[in-house]
Amino acid sequence: MILSNPEPHIAQLLDHAAATDAGIFAYAQERTEEPSYLSYSQLRLLAAQKADLLRNDGSQSSAKIVLIHFATQFENIVWFWASILAGRVPCLSQALGHSPEDRAAHFEHLHRLLLDPLVITSQTLLNRDFAASSVLRTVAVEQLEAGMYVPGSHSIEPLPSTEGIDLMMLTSGSTGRAKAVSLSHRQIFAAVQGKLAIMPLPKSSALLNWIALDHVAGLVEIHLCALRAGLDQVHVPATEVLTDPLLFLRLIAKHGVSRTFAPNFFLQKLSTALDAVAASMIDVVDLSQLRYIASGGEPNLVDVCVRLTKQLTQLGTGTSPIVPGFGMTETCAGAIFNFSCPQIDISAGTEFASLGACMPGIEMRISSVTGNDVNVNKQASGWLEVRGEVIFEGYFNDETATRTAFTADGWFRTGDIASLDCHGRLYLTGRSNDVININGIKHDPCTVEAALNQAAIPGIVAFSVACFTYRPSNADSGGVMVIYEHTYPTDDIEARLSTLTSISHIVSPIVGSRPHVLPLAPGQLVKTTLGKLSRTKIRRALEQGQYHTQQETNNELIRSYQSINASPPQNEAEEALMGLLHELFFDLPEITADHAILNMGISSVDLIRLKRAIERRFQIAEVPMVMLLTSNTIQSLSSAIRALRHNSCKASCETYQPIVTLQPQGSKVPLWLFHPGIGEILVFLGLVQYFPDRPIYAMRARGFSPDEEPFAHLSDVLSTYYRALKAQQPDGPYALAGYSYDSMIAFELSKLLEANGDQVRFLGCFNLPPHIQDRMRTLDWTAGVLHIAHFCGVLTEQQSEAMADDLRALTPAEQVSRVLAEGCTQRCEELALTQESLLTWTNVAWSLQKIGWEYSPTGSVTSMDVFYCQPLKVVARTREEYRNTKLNHWVNFVREDVRYHEVDGEHYTMIGPEHVARFQLTLKKALVARGL
Q1: Long-range contacts of range 130-133, CB-CB < 8 Å, 24 or more positions apart?
Q2: For residues 14 and 43, is the Cβ–Cβ distance under 8 A?
């Protein structure tokens, strides 16, 4: 066989393909009716002719490396092979920056890195892109074809040899200036053969590429693999499919494409486009040849994979063609693949798809984050390291970078943080230089960006959001910056403010702090060759002041609008409160005196911080939490504070008000949330901020304020909540959900509503079975205080279990003192837990527990959605056991259907900060499925 030579050369791939009947179809910009065609044999002949031009006497210089810079794929491919046949080392040029300063620095860098390369381009591009370059040697192909000499070399000291290097690929330069990855004959053949071994391609099919060839996926995954397989390859400009995603499917059908490539953002665009025309596409396209859509460059959302798989199978794919994978330029493109998406990802319950297992020619391991040893435990997170035939040997002309890139025992450090599950499947959790670090807590920017993209906020251009750590010059600590391209006119301040609010609602609960937000006009954000945003380069541009004008304009527009339309502070108290909000939550020019505080995107911990700040600022010993929840604007809170300071706050904060408005805005059906068994509703603050388009109300138990008697009977709870609910929302349809204990309350209220002729469209149960009497009877006052402490993170579950027996011998006051003394002091301070507040809180919880002693479910409701997670140890060992032996009994009390939704976390953490971002996605899907 021609490719079994022990010393292979990349030219053999072209020789092999030239013996077949296949070739290249190339579509031109804005002309996608009929493509140009060049058979592989014609390509071989044309490349040989061009190679002769590179061999003439005038071009025999010290330049061994040829930098190829053309506008079309045809030209890039032809001159790529011409360089190889001429004995040169080709390197495909990247898109150039817009700034003259950036270009000049880039050219200087390439001159030194690539040893004074020869730049081959067209006369048009030479005049446009390289006119200002005084460093690089450039030649237009028109000059070569006219017999003109190549410019002489610039002096450069002898540096590393190019011996054994087939080609070079430039990295994105995300960590600085681009590095040159040297790809050898052996590496390229191992990569191509490895990919074809695990992704066999049907005869008479084709491969489709819409990515520039300076990206390793376009060059290796498509171009070189198509040559080796002897199959047609189809090239179309990226702008064509990005502006018309359905063209992607039409080309697949037209050319019988079996393999292509698309990152997650494009798959999401494609699915959205199909939503509108899916039925009409069935008779237009036939995707029966399509086997693989390799996907990489960014995490794949399981939800997108599920939705698109269903759409594509309806168009003839048979099975899911989406293949998430991992690869880098250094690994010769994709080398780790998931061929069971989305099935295994649905089973795993993850938000992002697994990247699968290694192909032949590569192996992987996860090393400890300390770097001291290798962690072989499955599911442990650490650095992803790889080795094998497909891994490059080093960066050209950069010994320092090469040395840093490899471990002492020869593994390549990818720079990614990852884990392996029990089946050896790879999951990435972020890149080391991308992680958002806020107050010592790390967050994956992909999670934030995915949440914003899924929200489809009207003011944001689709998939044009970048998130990263940001610390303003006047801030003591860092936060998160969200930069997006806007769809609204620059002077539409109301749209600007609405988008800002929506972003804050989504981002704040994920990262635990309010984001800085900067809108830009379309086209101003830097994108990679794949068409996705370059987070690192955007951050660098911000730090270098390139967006300074836009920041000043944004702040001035907001301030100007507020000065005209907003309610300014009317007294010293309001001014002081506004100052506290600015101080605690960074500079917020959009805050006004009538601004809803809970609508700012603050977390429960933020609310505690505000509580303590108010106490210090106004010298008040204790501000009741209920006052912050019910006095939800600067104006109303100011009035409540004045009343409190004059010891006459009975009307403002002591009169029991069951409803807390967590989110007042939105046109969708309101969602009613009912507290867990401990009676408090702070647990919902992180969740509700994902719903900027839906009013959300919560019911809080009675007994937290002085002179409030806790509930003693279920009938009292139901009548109180029912009257309040109907007063706030007189007519249905209704959407109710209860967390744990109050799933029972939500169930009973749904029965009342339906009995009175109202429609309950959604009833959510968060991890509670219908029969709770036995469980409630095992609980006493001590169990209540321990549950609250565990729920709040003051005690661990193990601490709670160890303390239980000893506490029961103490009085309630002594039990509270013991819990506070042995619990986490920092957490107590964060939550402002005191002897008095914890004692009151436990009494409220105790009253609710006693009500549950006598509860036995009866009757039925129309439907129910059950959200379940890892149960308490005393209830069941596993979530599967919990669902099959406890939660399944809900079918006896539901007339139509019960739908079960497995979610992350444990009973006390299922909607906590670490899990709320995924929980809200499941909740939203359930609401939509119920017509809400």
Answers
A1: 132/100, 132/103, 132/104, 133/103, 133/104, 133/107
A2: yes
Q: Which helix (H) or strand (E) holds 663?
A: strand 659-663
E strands in 377-508: 382-387, 412-420, 426-431, 436-438, 441-443, 460-470, 479-486
Helix, strand, or coil here: 517?
A: strand
Distance CA 751, CA 339 (A): 46
DSSP-derived letter for residue 907 is: T
Sign of the alpha-carbon dihedral angle for 618, 623, 625, 628? negative
Pairing of strands 322-328, 292-295: parallel
Distance of alpha carbon 497 from alpha carbon 392, whole angstroms: 49
Choose the most confident range, by mean pLDDT, from 157-161, 280-284, 588-592, 710-714.
710-714
Q: How far apart are CA 631 and CA 652, in angstroms?
A: 8
pLDDT at 738: 92
Question: pLDDT tens, 614-628?
Answer: 887 888 877 776 677
Mean pLDDT of the region 474-496: 82
Eight-class DSSP state of 654: I
- Find the DSSP H helices in 525-654: 535-543, 548-565, 572-584, 604-618, 625-630, 634-645
Residue 322, SS3 per DSSP? strand
Range 91-97 average pLDDT: 86
The whole-number pLDDT of residue 299 equals: 85
Residue 416 has pLDDT above 50, yes or no: yes
Task: Identify the residue whose tokens are 């004008």.
Answer: 549
For 743, phi and psi rounded to 5 degrees? -65, -35
Percentage with pLDDT > 90 across the chain: 37
Three-class secondary structure of residue 482 per DSSP: strand
pLDDT, position 653: 46
Annotation says 153 is catalytic: no
Distance CA(806)–CA(815), nearest Å, equals: 9
- Round to whole Å and give the CA distance between 592 and 497: 12
> In this predicted structure, what is the pLDDT of residue 371?
41
Strands 180-184 and 165-170 turn out to be: antiparallel
The pLDDT score that the predictor gives to residue 372 is 38
Using the Cα atoms of residue 427, residue 485, residue 235 and residue 168 in order, give the sign of their dihedral: negative
Contacts of 344 (CB under 8 A, 6+ apart): 338, 354, 425
Q: How high is the pLDDT of residue 566?
A: 61
What are the CA-CA distances from residue 201 to residues 26, 204, 231 (Å)? 21, 9, 9
The residues, any chain, with a CB within 8 Å of residue 915's CB and separated by 6 or more, are 903, 904, 905, 909
Q: HSE on the CB side for 595, CA within 13 Å?
A: 24
Non-local CB neighbours of 454 within 8 Å, separated by 6+ positions? 301, 303, 921
Question: For position 279, what pLDDT does the model report?
Answer: 65
Amino acid residing at 494: E
Q: Which of these, 409, 386, 293, 264, lies nearest to 336 by C-alpha position?
A: 386
What pTM was computed for the model? Answer: 0.64
CA atoms within 13 A of residue 509's CA, in its CB half-sphere: 30
* φ and ψ at residue 840, rounded to 5 degrees: -60, -45
Coil vs helix vs strand at 769: coil
What local confidence, expressed as pLDDT, does residue 565 receive? 66
Find all residues with CB under 8 Å of 34, minimum gap 6, and list them. Answer: none
Dist. CA 833–CA 229, nearest whole Å: 68
Do 194 and 359 contact (CB within 8 A), yes or no? yes
Averaged pLDDT for residues 440-461: 79
Q: Which of 58-62, 517-521, 560-564 has the least mean pLDDT?
A: 58-62
Could you tell me if 480 and 513 are in contact, meaning their C-beta atoms sit under 8 angstroms apart? Answer: yes
Burial (Cβ within 10 Å: 0-12, 13-18, ≥19) of residue 26: buried
What is the DSSP code string of 154-168?
PP-------TTEEEE
Reading the block at residue 716, the tokens are: 């009292």
Selected catalytic residue, list 184, 502, 631, 740 = 740
Strand-pair partners of 209: 235
